[in-house]
Design goal:
Blueprint (H helix, E strand, L loop, with lengths): L9 E7 L6 H14 L4 E7 L6 H7 L3 E4 L5 H11 L4 E4 L11 H9 L4 E5 L11 H19 L11 E4 L3 H4 L8 H11 L4 E5 L13 H14 L2 H25 L2 E2 L2 E2 L2 H30 L7 H9 L2 H28 L8 H28 L16
Helix pairs in contact: 5-8, 9-10, 10-13, 12-13
Length: 392
């Protein structure tokens, strides 16, 4: 096994699926740039089950080929990263869209302190290189949405030419198998507080057939951004529903006129449903964030850190119990009035709905506290039991 002194400075990792028209020229270009600049490096081609001669052509051109049977852009990159041995990793596609002469600039940026460097194609797209839909709609919207949620500052989150320090891979914990892998790298880098740099590069027309499916892969990018942000996915819509629902209940019960009319029992019921649904989604938000921290080893945000220090299972049970009790008393009093009237007409229907909402919210809080406590068990380390003498 080679020692650390034998490890190359850079591993150029290229994913490949049926790219026999261009893979050899890409390998030769990368290999030539490394040699011309005296950079110790290797070219690793992650073949993703090509049915043509891509793998053989890559090997003949001087690449080390690793095979990944699981289809997917991310799957290929995960296999390539696992095989890479360089201090730095530079990635690029196998279709001649990227200029491998940019490799020294990527390495220089890493050596100047960046942990990850991403190319920005959007200012230097050669005519015909990127479809109109991707250039003016897909990429700007998805990159903008990523920045809205994660504040990465990256203008082209889907650029395939990028570089990173190999020793940061363990912190990124990359899992995606499809095209969304590019977004996941940025999201995970932001969450791990890595130093991300970006500079403009050229983007050229590809050789061969594109493997990108605009709407399917766009949805996969969007889905990844949402599931990695429980606040945007759950908490924001939940708080909106809670606010609208609570306001509707207050207006209905108080008899305050809004938009020139007084809101009746039907509005109360609708507002109650919004409030209950909002509270349920809040529970999902807290559960998702807790799971991400305790099970997926993500860093807790300020709200969760505060909750860890000040909120216990017992306090959640007490709060839920109090809300339940208030609602139960309200409904019990109203039912008592109704019985006293001989089960006749009841004029306190809206207040009865309000009491029922409190009962439901109290029960949600009570049992959700237990559920969050169960997730929290994941942070408890098991004891270092002594051996039972049976080995293993």
């Amino acid at each position: 096994m080679a020692g650390a002194a034998d490890a190359p400075t850079v591993s150029v990792v290229i994913p490949c699926l049926n790219e026999e028209q261009s893979i050899a020229s890409c390998v030769r270009s990368a290999r030539g740039v490394l040699d011309d600049h005296g950079i110790s490096g290797e070219v690793v081609v992650a073949d993703n089950g090509s049915e043509d001669d891509s793998a053989a052509l890559a090997t003949a051109a001087g690449a080390r080929v690793v095979h990944e049977a699981r289809r997917g852009y991310g799957s290929a990159y995960l296999a390539g990263f696992a095989a890479a041995s360089g201090t730095y990793i530079v990635t690029a596609d196998a279709d001649q869209t990227y200029d491998f002469n940019e490799i020294p600039r990527f390495l220089a940026t890493l050596e100047n302190g960046a942990d990850m460097v991403i190319g920005n194609r959007m200012n230097n797209i050669v005519p015909g290189a990127m479809p109109w839909l991707h250039r003016y709609i897909g990429n700007p919207i998805l990159s903008g949405f990523l920045n809205l949620l994660y504040r990465s500052g990256v203008h082209d989150a889907h650029c395939g030419m990028r570089a990173l320090r190999r020793d940061k891979l363990s912190r990124l914990q990359l899992r995606s198998t499809g095209m969304e892998f590019a977004s996941e790298m940025v999201v995970r880098a932001v969450k791990e507080n890595l130093e991300i740099a970006e500079f403009d590069i050229e983007y050229h027309p590809r050789e061969g057939e594109s493997k990108l499916s605009s709407f399917r892969d766009g949805w996969r990018h969007l889905k990844l951004l949402l599931v990695n942000s429980p606040t945007a996915l759950f908490m924001v819509p939940a708080l909106v529903l809670l606010a609208v629902g609570f306001l509707g209940i207050v207006l209905s019960i108080s008899g305050i006129s809004l938009f020139g009319r007084e809101w009746q029992i039907h509005a109360t019921i609708a507002a109650a449903l919004l409030t209950i649904v909002g509270a349920q989604i809040v529970t999902l938000a807290l559960s998702a964030r807790t799971f991400a921290v305790y099970v997926l080893n993500e860093k807790p945000d300020r709200l969760l850190e505060w909750g860890q220090e000040h909120v216990t299972l017992e306090s959640g049970l007490i709060a839920g119990g109090i809300v339940f009790l208030i609602g139960f008393v309200i409904d019990a009093v109203i039912v008592g009035i109704w019985i006293n009237r001989g089960f006749g007409e009841l004029s306190e229907e809206r207040l009865l709905v309000f009491g029922s909402v409190l009962i439901i919210l109290g029960l949600q809080a009570f049992f959700s506290s237990f559920f969050l406590s169960i997730i929290g068990l994941a942070r408890e380390r098991p004891p270092n039991w002594p051996s039972d003498g049976r080995g293993g």
